[in-house]
Amino acid sequence: MRWLSRLLSQAVAARRASAAARSNTSLVKGGSHGFASGGRDGSPEVPREWLRKLWVDELKKQKEAARRWGVGSSLEVAGATEEAPSRSYQYEYSGSNPVEAKLAPLLARANLVIARDIEWANIMFAFEQESRYIIMDPLFPQSPVGFIREKSNIIFRQLLRTRRPFVAEITDAMGNEIFKVRRPFWWINSSIYVEVNDKEIGVVHRRWHLWRRIYDLYLGNMQFAVVENPGFWNWTFNLVDEDDKMLAQIDRNWRGLGFELFTDAGQYAIRFGDEGQSHKFAPAEDVEELHVVRQLTLPERAVALALAISLDSDYFSRRGGWGLPFLIATE
């Protein structure tokens, strides 16, 4: 990292300067001017306290830069807590709630991008694989912030296809589980359940309609949002409250003709509203600003992410086979 390289270069420069001073004068002796003798090559050693001071000063500079851009994450060094610009948190939550504390590292962000991996066995041989997704923060697209990994029975995947039951684990970038979604077998209307610490907190129910795509989102037993997509070629799904006011938005992005025709590797942008973000990085320009009537709570955001997984399975997963997949999404 650049700050570590800068820290080491300063330490080397200080060591060389002290060695030169020692060769030119006899004033620098053991313990003088804060440097202690005893280096392997006879030169003075750099004390740990001086290195610690340089390190803390560098972290303070990073904290100031993070505040200017409105981002930050905690980094503890030698008992001091500082911040580095590696996360784009915009949701303030109460640390006393264990469910919110579990969800915050992934969902306390203004926007998320979910991209599905290409399933080559499905493309070439129509062999249904377990779905894999990468979760990214548009502000820092170089590094994933989480993953989604499906776990299902291989026989059910081949026979039931998009109607198969499965459990998907949502983890952070280090592979630590944050929550799960459980999708049982369905025939007419699909449902997907959100579980945190093996306790169900919310559910998404699909409501049958001949052409419209309608979903009801619940937190516990209380409905907090509904999606009424007009269907056909409309790929934007607005989460609105009972007064038809915007809460969040899920948009399936076009990834190019090759991706759309020959794979089911879709990409979804989830916008929770970014009034708290005053700056945007260049990679985040593809995710437009969304004005919402209120911020969704972290459990509600988990239900919204489960909806994105359900949408991908219900409408945008295709069967493959020898490079000639069906062009109509199976339902």
Structure in words:
The protein is of the alpha+beta class and 331 residues long. It has a domain at 90-316: Tubby Protein, Chain A, CATH 3.20.90. The chain contains seven helices and 14 strands. Strands 11-10-9-8-7-6-5-4-3-14-13-12 form a twelve-stranded antiparallel β-sheet. The chain has a two-stranded antiparallel ribbon with strand order 1-2. Helix 1 (2-24) runs antiparallel to helix 2 (48-69). It is globular. Mean pLDDT is 74; it is low at 23-41, 68-87, 278-284 and 321-331.
Topology overview:
Layout: H1 2-24, H2 48-69, E1 73-77, E2 80-84, H3 98-107, E3 111-116, H4 120-125, E4 132-136, E5 146-151, H5 154-160, E6 166-172, E7 177-183, E8 191-196, E9 199-207, E10 213-219, E11 222-229, E12 236-240, E13 246-253, H6 257-262, E14 267-271, H7 298-315
Antiparallel strand pairs: 1-2, 3-4, 3-14, 4-5, 5-6, 6-7, 7-8, 8-9, 9-10, 10-11, 12-13, 13-14
Biased composition (Gly residues): 31-41
GO biological process, one term: plasma membrane phospholipid scrambling
Family: Belongs to the phospholipid scramblase family.
